[in-house]
Amino acid sequence: MKTRKTNSKKQNFSSSRRNLLKASATGAALFSLSGLTLFSPRARAATITYNFVAESYTKTMVDGVDITAWRFRDLNGANSGPGELSAGIVAQEGDNIVINLTNNLNTSIQFDIPGLVENQGLLNSGASATINFAVPQAGSYLFRDNKVSEFGQAMGLTGPMIVMPGDGSQTLYTGGPAFDRQYTLVLNDFDDRLNAATASGQSYNLDNFEPNYYFVNGLSYPNTASDADTKVAMSLGEDIAIRFVNAGLLTHSMHFHGYHVRVISRNRVPVTDIIDKDTVVVNPSECVDIILPVNQLGKFPLHTHYIPAVTANGVYVNPYGGSLLIVEAT
Length: 330
Ligand SMILES: [Cu+2]
Hints:
With 330 residues, the chain is mostly beta strands. The chain folds into 2 domains: 2-164, Sandwich (Immunoglobulin-like); 181-329, Cupredoxins -  blue copper proteins (Immunoglobulin-like), CATH 2.60.40. The chain has 3 helices and 23 strands. The strands form 5 sheets. Strands 10, 11, 13, 15, 16, 17 and 19 form a 7-stranded mixed β-sheet that branches. It has a 5-stranded mixed β-sheet with strand order 1-7-5-2-3. The chain is globular. The structure holds copper (II) ion. Copper (II) ion binds at residues 255, 257, 301, 303.
């Protein structure tokens, strides 16, 4: 097994903070990741170990069609990402993350977390590596394969990483806005011709990428409306944090009915001119954290304004569709 060590490029804590967050000896993850991201603050930072495989699998689309796709899968849990996603990371500032990654695909990959873990080099088919890094500032991150342009992302080899503040606050970043609940919503899309070509060992020109299936946390409407990770449940008066992680190749303008929201940060950079708006642009590979103040009761759709993306292989919403979900305040 090869061992690589990667240090974060940004260390934003003071030395006193670093002492406070001294890593503990235990390796257990103390929180789990779901669309409804659960978080139990810890007084001390920890070393958290993930055992991931990169693999090919058969994913059944909402219309019953089976497609060959790629995924990261956490070996410690049948489903440790939100919704149908099989891998996700939740950590706290100052933690140390150890990812034991085995590549069970028949091609090499390159693990990558934009802005944090880059230039890891190739991990060959059948090989394993350990990726070790210190967790930097709070916020939302994307992990992915980026060996060949965005090809790994087009095949679904992605996942979210959520970092909570080290001070234990339920905020989007230290000193940032507080929230009552948080949801992680990973957006991506499949072009089944690319998946079919890959499954049969052929190449596919990404210039021709034109998805026909669209997902939030690996689910398409109406499954998004029944899964607790993608059905955004809220109470009147709450502030809801939503972390959009665009793991796909398309830009999505996420449109809210019933509510106005505030964009708090893009790729961990706080937005300074916060205004209330009902549409939030999320670019490919971008992580956008927002706050939704729940100021009225009701049940409303939240969907991309890229209209093909609310379809499933050309079928629009009834009986099924794509990146459309339901937010409901009771
Ligand atoms: Cu609409």
